[in-house]
Write a structure and sequence with these properties.
single chain, Rossmann fold, GMP Synthetase, Chain A, domain 3, 3 domains, globular
Length: about 600
């Protein structure tokens, strides 16, 4: 039995929840909700960063036969009010002080009736309608709530909603994706056919739980009896992963792009012979990977060199990720092939995949023993996938959503007459049946010269650089491609000191001619593999990063392009107001 085994815990100081405690608290939360007047099928909001109480509340709402509705922890009053009204939410679970303060404001405006606070250190500001997490559990101790909860459990149906997930609104008003119990049950079943996860596994929960990727992954981990370790601040993942030493962790490509850039930067500073040894060892690893891609193993001589390379270099890189990762699911955006190959070469098994909120996460992913570089793997068993007009990826199967909440017209737009979901993503399929992701169809940029540019491809090419932290491409209806670039300031400042650049502010540093020339040379080198019409001709260095708080990034670090273009309109227009551009870059219009 798993009763005394840890199910949930917080990285660093924080609560530890055993399986026995998980069951008892889930039941207590459900009974507390009954006492608050919650009705079967009623929506309940969840707004907070990752913590065990988030998942306990999620499960407790479900146990009460309610419908959990996650809100982004960075939601402002307007965003939260829209979702609360759209879903008819009366009870809101809030995580830490910023979410609690938002909840108190919503109470004052009459948008909600009850606020449950997850973080015990948060100040309730004397609000009588707010109660602590422990206070909710205490309400659930009322014996009068037991019969009602038993009746709800008996009435459980597979067509009950499992959740309402609001899209991030990158292209318009957020829509509530309706996923039911049948959808999540099918997702668990299909993952069993593709993955091997068990009670011995430990997963680091670092992506926001408000997003379907981490949330569905956490549900699968608990279904398989694995341990979940919560990380409130994803910016601390590098330090946390070495302490937690997870066997599993799902994340987005940007995590590995940044890690790749960081490792390359360290090696560039290491000097000979360290850098030479590193290049040799990674080269050996790549040779082994390329053989495995063809279904072959290394011969005796390569096998010996690989063991030496692993002992001297590759193992040390794996240890940066805790040293015991079995596989690492990665999805949510395009992952550059050379970044993927690098981590495969050092022995970190990235399991690349693809999915949407509308499909209860995973549509496809790499299979064990398969390494189809350049693809997002074969579709999950039980799903039908085809290419429609404009090579749009279309999906049909038991994990596809019921529809958008209260939006039948929007639902009709994304469903074909024969029941396939239009994903809005362009792609292809190779001879082995592996899917290939190209770009969001709506994000494809058409230059004024009629050329189509896939921004993620160009951004992924530049983002591998050790001095580039973020990049956003501009090209739609323009006569050439430009870029907004956020540098890694600690690395850039070190470079500036080495070449004698003096400055009094980040903005002054970015205006220095030596810094500009430095980035020009790096960008020209990076984009040699791009077609001429895809190459960046002009760029602007930004003194602040794109921000989730300002609405410029989604919780999974995707660019919200309209917000970025609005925020940096002046910088963008300045790039198109005069020539010349990058030395050696194609002329405008090419």
């Amino acid at each position: 039995m798993r009763g005394d085994k840890v199910a949930l815990r917080t990285h660093g100081e924080g609560p530890t929840v055993t399986w026995a405690e998980l069951g008892a608290r889930m039941d207590g939360i459900a009974r507390g909700l009954v006492r608050l007047g919650h009705k079967p099928g009623e929506m309940v909001g969840l707004c907070g960063r990752n913590m065990p109480e988030w998942t306990l509340s999620d499960l407790g709402i479900l146990a009460a036969r309610g419908v959990p509705v996650p809100l982004y922890p960075t939601s402002n009053l307007e965003q939260a009010t829209f979702i609360l009204r759209d879903a008819g939410i009366r009870i809101l679970f809030a995580g830490e002080q910023p979410q609690v303060d938002l909840g108190i404001e919503l109470l004052a405006q009459g948008e909600i009736a009850h606020l449950v606070v997850l973080d015990p250190s948060a100040d309730l500001r004397g609000c009588p309608q707010a109660l602590t997490f422990q206070g909710l559990l205490a309400l659930g101790e009322d014996p009068a709530t037991a019969p009602e909860l038993e009746a709800r459990v008996a009435d459980f149906r597979m067509e009950d909603l499992f959740t309402l997930v609001y899209t991030s609104g990158t292209t318009g008003v957020p829509k509530g994706v309706m996923l039911d119990q049948a959808n999540i049950a099918a997702a668990m079943r299909l993952h069993d056919l593709r993955l091997k996860v068990g009670p011995e596994d430990v997963s680091l929960c670092m992506l926001p739980l408000c997003h379907i990727f981490e949330r569905a992954w956490t549900a699968y981990l608990l279904y398989r009896g694995a341990e979940v370790v919560y990380l409130r601040d994803p910016q601390t993942v590098v330090a946390a992963i070495g302490v937690v030493r997870p066997t599993l962790m799902c994340s987005v490509p940007r995590v590995y792009e940044k890690a790749y850039a960081g490792i390359q930067a360290r090696m560039a500073k290491a000097g000979w012979p360290t850098s030479a040894l590193f290049e040799w060892a990674v080269g050996v690893g790549l040779s082994v990977v390329r053989l495995r891609m063809r279904g072959k193993g290394p011969g005796p001589w390569l096998g010996l060199r690989h063991r030496v390379a692993d002992l001297l270099v590759l193992r040390k890189i794996r240890n940066l990720f805790g040293g015991r990762c079995r596989f690492l699911p990665v999805a949510g955006a395009s992952l550059a092939d050379d970044v993927n190959l690098f981590f495969q070469a050092v022995g970190l098994r990235l399991k690349y995949g693809y999915g949407l909120s509308e499909t209860c996460a995973t549509v496809s992913c790499w299979e064990d023993g398969s390494m189809p570089i350049g693809t997002i793997g074969r579709p999950m068993e039980g799903l039908e996938v085809r290419l429609g007009e404009e090579n749009e990826i279309q999906v049909k199967g038991p994990t596809v959503m019921r529809g958008y909440y209260k939006r039948p017209e929007e639902t009709a737009k994304v469903m074909t007459e024969d029941g396939f979901l239009r994903t809005g993503d362009a792609g292809g399929m190779d001879a082995e049946g592996n899917l290939i992701f190209t770009e969001r169809i709506k994000e494809l940029m058409k230059t004024s010269n009629g050329q189509y540019v896939a921004p993620q491809r160009v951004e992924g090419t530049l983002a591998k650089d050790a001095f580039i932290e973020q990049v956003a491409i501009i090209a739609d209806s323009r006569n050439f491609v430009s870029a907004l670039i956020v540098p890694y300031f600690d690395r850039l400042e070190e470079y500036a000191r080495s070449v004698g650049v003096t400055y009094r502010s980040p903005a002054e540093l970015l205006r220095d001619s030596k810094v500009t020339a430095f980035f020009e040379s790096r960008i020209l080198e990076l984009q040699k593999g791009l077609a001429k019409y895809e190459q960046v001709k002009k760029f602007t260095l930004l003194s602040r990063p794109f921000s989730m708080d300002l609405g410029e990034l989604t919780p999974t670090l995707k660019l919200r392009r309209k917000f970025i273009e609005q925020a940096f309109r002046a910088e963008i227009e300045a790039m198109y107001s005069a020539l010349p551009g990058l030395p050696g870059a194609p002329e405008a219009g090419n």
